Amino acid sequence: MDCFGTKHCLFLFVLINNVLLTLQTKEEVLLDMKSAGGELGWLQWPSEQGWEVLQTVVNGSMFYTYSVCNVVEGEQDNWLRTTFVQRRPAATRVFVELRFVVRDCNSFDGASLTCKETFNMYAAEADADVGTSFRKGQFRKVATVAPDEISVRGELKVNTETKVVESLSRKGFYLAFQDLGSCVALLSVRIYYKICPATVLGLASFPDTVAGAEGGALREVTGTCVANAISQEPPRIYCTLNGEWVVQVGQCRCKPGYEAANGSCQACQAGYFRASLTMEKCDLCPENTQRSPAGSQTCPCREGFYRAPEDPTSDGCSGLPSGPRKLLATVRAGKLRLSWLAPADTGGRDDVEYSVTCQQCEAAVCQPCGEELRFEPRPAPLREPHVTVSGLEAQLNYTFTVEARTGVSRYSSQRATSSITTALHLTETPAVTLIRLEKRSSSSLSLSWALSQRSGRAPRYELMYRKKDDGTASDITTYTVLVLEKNLVQISDLVPGTVYVFRVTVLNPDGTPSGNSVEHEFETTSLAEPQVSSNTPVVLGAILGGGAMLLVVGGILLLHKRRRGTHSRDGAEDAYFSGSADQMKPLKTYVDPHTYEDPNMAVQKFATEIHPSHVSKQKVIGAGEFGEVYRGMLKMPGRKETAVAIKTLKPGYTEKQRRDFLSEASIMGQFSHQNIIRLEGVVTKFKHAMIVTEYMENGALDKYLRDRDGELTSYQLVDMLRGIAAGMKYLSNMNYVHRDLAARNILVNSSLVCKVSDFGLSRILEDDAEGTYTTSGGKIPIRWTAPEAIAYRKFTSASDVWSFGIVMWEVMAYGERPYWDMSNHEVMKAINEAFRLPAPMDCPSAVYQLMLQCWLQERARRPRFADIVSLLEKLLKSPESLKTIADFDPRVSIRLPSTSGSDGSPFRSVVEWLESIKMSQYTENFTRAGVTTMEQVLQMKIEDIRNIGVRLPGHLKRIAYSILGLKDQTSTLSVFAV
Ligand code: AMP
């Protein structure tokens, strides 16, 4: 045999040593021929021929290699078997690295027939070492080992091959190398498996793991978070066949109070904090906090500084705000506007809110202002630094206190306030004293008039005129109405030689006629007569002079000859009740207290007398016509104490006032129905007369709904209407005509039951702010009242039904003002021209149809309250019927408060427009959103309006309506013709 030279063996050893070094970190070696150091003890079979062991000394150490080279002896079958190799249970797959040299067969003379250039590798598993027992049949072939390079004489080529032995399952195994007649030197055999070494990755530690799973799959390994770290799901990672960690899942993070450093979680240093689970560093304690101890999750606030519950604990702390600045009260159009500047110091917060409270103080005794004050928007919480207050009584002093609060105000009893005391000084509206003819012709008359006193503001006038003989021909008079800004006018297009009646009234600041009017007749010249002129040159207003005329209503008013009705309720005589016998004969009929000679008798007959010691007043809840209304308690002997409302009669009353005051009790005492406010009794025998009624926790319906805009279901709203209708059915059956049915006169209790109230006889004339003097003399809440009641005071249950229709609209529109800001004249004109209120947003179709029925011009065709109750009950029994919603088209709205500037020109600025629709509180929202021109406003859609922060449905509607109105200046009235 041809031996491998010692030099070559030495060279091979150095090479092998290098490889060993690089593998150390990732491989676990089960057997290494080279590092065995001594006799290997491998079994050679047959023992005398075949594989031979060679010894080589390198640096004084002995190394062994095996070789075989029987290339010319004919057929060979020589085996070399390793010692028993113990396996680690996880190592089912091992690598065998062979380093060997194969000689070229051609380099042996005459050996070409039998000489081979490959050898085979086999493996056999066993649970124990079988010693020298060797049976070929137990081995399975793993691979044929072929050299990449064959060695020729004088030039040795070392080959390295790595073979894999898979699916090992028993405790150990042997490898065997079979030679079939080649010239091979086996320099090194190294058996190893790979491992992913134990590591800490992403604050999770993973153990040593044998690489690869069955079938070559990745091995999934679960780790554990390092100390003071946690993870939501267990951290996992995969170990590849090559012993590499890949794809980590489930991140560990340091607990609050710790930070990640060098693969571990370390407590935050003193003065630092960390509030959340994190991979990040601790933060320095923020503003206005104390230095925290080591390991802190948050830094405590310094004294006098706080965190609101909604503030993140990682934020700094804030101080209390200072008070609002420069509180200012201005009066405009009978309303008071309070405005102020934000606190100089907000404590570093941007959640400043304000609340406004009102007190009335007299002789150092203060009490909260009554509920009749209306705040727009609500007085608390306010985001904007202004609020408008209406319902103030002229000449009374009110003290308003504005408090600034932020999220941390609750932690201190200290209040940041600013107060102002103010009164609403209403200047008396002057009256017209005389009308003068300045100039006349056959077709025109120029008039001027004088005032009783100078007025601070420029007054506006209402001029009505008609041909004189129109008033005599029929019941109905047609007037032409002009609204003027100056006290002179020229009327053109008149008929020659005709007498005209002119009536001039000064308008109150709110646009209602003041009631003091002067009437005069003037005649146009006949065609033959020359033009007559007075001495004074006339500065012509209206038609000639530019800009003097504010608005020409050109309306037609139905007026009836004065028929000043008494206060008796005249429902029974009305043809309206000529329907069924049931309705004609109520079980009980209401008795007008005025039919009693002594009205005190009426009170005694219909009301229970209460001793004042049984009544205790607690708090003012409203202001009635005759005095304050209190919430209080009633404790009658032998009865449970109950909450009551107590109406009082203010001192200094006249006997007539006392009678009128108590007449309400005389009326109320005759009724007993769950939807009519219940009279508990009266105090009449003592100096301070009182009327005691059941207490209605939720107060007046209009305010209640306005405060809950959009918050109730259609079912709840319709159920409220059913209650009101039931109360009205009861009243109409008793032949009682209410005359002032409106949401403000309905009270709501804690179970949302609605009850009809306000039964005073003189109330409509005196008490109701909505009452407006009509040209026929009486004072009437125009927008709630049926046309026949306005025109000729025909108050009947059918006119109550009309009012009920308006209440239905108010309820479905969450307390919206009927006909919005149209003037009373515009309302009457519209109704007369058969226009009706459009359906409120989201109003069930059936409910709107019922409203339209209530508003039929011909009163006999309107439904009766009995019909209304049964229809509403039917709707409530099948709530599905409420799902069909009436068409709501804001473009078909009744004319909006303003579709253009006061002079009819388009609005010049967003501010001016918002002011005109009383939505100034959103000015900043528009500015912030960059909407600064009217062109931009016209592009806005309802979502845009909502997005800039207008959230209240009522306000959204108002702004959207106005934009639609601006787009379509020509459509001024709805087309809901009946
Ligand atoms: P009145 O003079 O009846 O219009 O009452 C004036 C105000 O007092 C009403 O608008 C209510 O806010 C309140 N009020 C009157 N009666 C009651 C009552 N029975 N329960 C609760 N509040 C009432």
UniProtKB/TrEMBL annotation:
Coiled coil: none annotated. One of its GO terms (cellular component) is dendrite. Pfam families: EphA2_TM, Ephrin_CRD, Ephrin_lbd, fn3, PK_Tyr_Ser-Thr, SAM_1. ATP binds at I621, G622, A623, G624, E625, F626, G627, E628, V629, K647. Residues 27-201 form the Eph LBD domain. The keyword Acyltransferase does not apply. The chain crosses the membrane at residues 538-559. Residues 905-969 form the SAM domain. This is receptor protein-tyrosine kinase.
